[in-house]
Amino acid sequence: MIEPADKQTQALPLDEQPAKRKRGRPATGAAMTPAEKQRAYRERQKAKSGYVDPATVEEIKRMQEEITRLRDALVATDASGLKKIDELRAENEQLKRQLSSRDDNELLKRLELAEAERDTMGNELAKAKAKLSKAGPTKRRYILQWQDPETGTWHDDKTGDYGSKAKANATCKEMNKPGFSHAPWRVRERQWV
User: How far apart, in whole angstroms, are the C-alpha atoms of residue 89 and residue 96?
Assistant: First the structure.
């Protein structure tokens, strides 16, 4: 011990040894519980098997119905728009014939108005078509079909929808194994929007 009055004696450094590290990899604190590991494993297995969540199927059906409704509305708009454009063209031609027979400022104004109205209808029709075409890219989807042994007709299987042909072929191969099903199965391609 150094006396407080002693100003010349230096304190000796103490040899402190660092705490000895444990063996193995250091803990991060983000370890999963066994239940979390099992849940993650089950999710990976579902993803590998081509499992489609029923909620996803319902969402796809809802989107298809919405797209069909929009397409029908566009067709109706398109038909009425085309009819209106044809009427305006006919009126335009009639005004041109009248104009050629006499020179009248009122007819010129009506002609210009009809042409402007026709152009406006054409622009609105083009916008509606562009909006519908942006509905999303078409994706290839595959479903399974089974053949009715009595009638020989093919029926769609309502339980699955496959995003790749390889997954659909693998499932079809399983379905065609002896003893699994009495009917033959095949893969059919369909287009989903």
Answer: 10
Rounded to a whole number of angstroms, the CA Rg of the chain reads 38
Blockwise average pLDDT, block size 10, the chain, 193 residues? 80 72 88 94 85 71 82 76 77 72 66 80 79 64 81 80 81 82 80 51
Nearest to 90 by CA among 126, 123, 117, 125: 117
Q: What's the half-sphere exposure (Cβ side, CA atoms, 13 Å) at 76?
A: 6
Q: Residue 87 and residue 132: Cα distance in Å, rounded?
A: 25
Sign of the torsion angle spanned by Cα atoms 131, 136, 140, 145: negative
Nearest-10 Cα torsion for 58, 162, 72, 124: 110
Neighbours of 103 (CB within 10 A): 8
